[in-house]
């Protein structure tokens, strides 16, 4: 293996040069400080530019709607109603019914909740009668 190491090392040196050949001595010195002038700073944004940004943003919003960050978060009732509908879609009627009963307890005047509860209970009863 010593001969192999020597052969590999010699081949490497012949292809890429020896380690001492890699870096010329003069490049090891640190560069001296340059006498270049500092970079110029950009002028501050004018009010015209800021107005244009606002106009573009408003135009974008009118075409595509507001960003999701600007929209109100979904309330807990909708999220729970959504979960109940997921349960219903999966055939887990008891959980859907439980959630709708809880929603009705929180909002007893909401007729749409009572109507949907009746529909889910009917679907559950139909399934148990035919299923």
Automatic annotation (TrEMBL):
<feature type="region of interest" description="Disordered">
    <location>
        <begin position="13"/>
        <end position="52"/>
    </location>
</feature>
<dbReference type="InterPro" id="IPR019734">
    <property type="entry name" value="TPR_rpt"/>
</dbReference>
<keyword id="KW-0802">TPR repeat</keyword>
<dbReference type="Pfam" id="PF13428">
    <property type="entry name" value="TPR_14"/>
</dbReference>
<dbReference type="InterPro" id="IPR011990">
    <property type="entry name" value="TPR-like_helical_dom_sf"/>
</dbReference>
<feature type="repeat" description="TPR">
    <location>
        <begin position="77"/>
        <end position="110"/>
    </location>
</feature>
<protein>
    <submittedName>
        <fullName>Tetratricopeptide repeat-containing protein</fullName>
    </submittedName>
</protein>
<feature type="compositionally biased region" description="Low complexity">
    <location>
        <begin position="31"/>
        <end position="49"/>
    </location>
</feature>
């Amino acid at each position: 293996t010593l001969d192999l190491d020597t052969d590999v090392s010699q081949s490497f040196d012949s292809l890429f040069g020896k380690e001492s050949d890699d870096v010329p001595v003069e490049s090891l010195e640190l560069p001296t400080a340059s006498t270049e002038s500092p970079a110029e700073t950009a002028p501050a944004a004018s009010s015209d530019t800021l107005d244009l940004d606002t106009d573009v943003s408003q135009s974008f919003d009118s075409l595509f709607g507001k960003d999701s960050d600007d929209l109100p978060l979904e309330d807990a009732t909708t999220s729970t109603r959504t979960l109940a509908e997921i349960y219903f879609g999966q055939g887990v009627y008891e959980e859907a019914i439980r959630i709708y009963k809880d929603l009705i307890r929180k909002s007893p005047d909401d007729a749409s909740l009572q109507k949907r509860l009746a529909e889910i209970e009917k679907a559950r009863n139909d399934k148990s009668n035919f299923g």
